[in-house]
Amino acid sequence: MNSGSAENGRRFGLDLLQSNGHAYFTGQGPGFDLESGVVVDNDTWHQVVISYESGIVSLYVDGVLSTSGTVSLNTAAAPVVIGAPPTGHSGFGSLHFRGSIDDIRIYSRALSGAEVSDLYAIESHPPVPRRATAELQVVNGFVVGLRVIDPGYGYTEPPTVLIRGGNGAGATATATVAGGIVTGFSITSPGGGFTGTPSVLIASPPFSPRLSIKVNQVSVILTVVLGRRYQLEASENLTNWIPVGRPFVAEDEEIVQDFLVSQTGQNFRIRQLP
């Protein structure tokens, strides 16, 4: 990425040295360049950041300061060129970048080293897909606004939005999505009759439907010898067993007892006592 002209000291550029694959800053000409010493043409994504403040250029690779130095720049006003030298350079139109470039950012101020490090930590570990959340605004019984609280992550299309509760009915809204997150909402119908604040439910990012089974209660059927004394025991890990109830004498050959899994687990055994 380059801006400025091909004159010494009048260029602000982030380039890749063809000889060794190092990222480097170029201000055009001897005394205006800084080489990182880090190879970035190894078929792996890298974050490369250049900051310029008070005459000092700092070059970061993957969140770490690689090199810095004092450079006197007087850049010329010119379009920003991505993937090629600046306009007027002898290599313009031929020395093209060979690789992939993504997520280019230009800030109006110099980032600090901590900000660069934090930015790398965030971008190198994309957030886990999650559902967006929002809050509603109700005026005179009508839904008039919907504000994003958490934009979520992982959306490939606008999610379904449901508005319910609040003693009213008929309110509907649609969501807008950009860059995998929910960016805003449009109220398609304000509904009416809302005396309380309704809740809003936003569908999760795309996922494969799945099924899980949760057992809340179990029936234990004991087949025992009439007149013998027993102790029922339970365990959550099949290693540590604890008594369930008091010892009892069998008054029938089949006894059925119901238990809450949250209290006993779902592993049982019966032990005959002397």
Provide a descriptive summary of the structure in words.
This protein has about 270 residues and is mainly β. The chain folds into three domains: about 1-125, Jelly Rolls; about 135-200; about 215-274. It is about 5% helix and about 45% strand. The protein has two helices and 19 strands. It has helices at about 115-125, 260-265; strands at about 1-5, 10-15, 20-25, 35-40, 50-55, 55-60, 65-70, 135-140, 140-150, 160-165, 170-180, 180-190, 200, 215-225, 230-235, 240-245, 250, 255-260, 265-274. The strands form seven sheets. It has a four-stranded antiparallel sheet with strand order 1-2-3-4, with no helix packed on it. Strands 15, 16, 17 and 19 form a four-stranded antiparallel sheet that branches. The N and C termini lie far apart (about 85 Å).
Observed structural traits:
mainly beta, 4-stranded antiparallel beta sheet, Jelly Rolls, 274 residues, 3 domains, elongated, 2 helices
Summarize it:
With 274 residues, the protein is mostly beta strands. The protein has helices spanning 113-123, 261-264, and strands spanning 2-4, 11-16, 22-26, 33-39, 48-53, 56-61, 64-70, 133-139, 142-150, 161-164, 169-178, 181-192, 199-202, 217-223, 229-235, 242-243, 248-249, 254-260, 267-273. The strands form 7 sheets. A 4-stranded antiparallel β-sheet has the order 1-2-3-4, with no helix packed on it. Strands 15, 16, 17 and 19 form a 4-stranded antiparallel β-sheet that branches. Strands 5-6-7 form a 3-stranded antiparallel β-sheet.
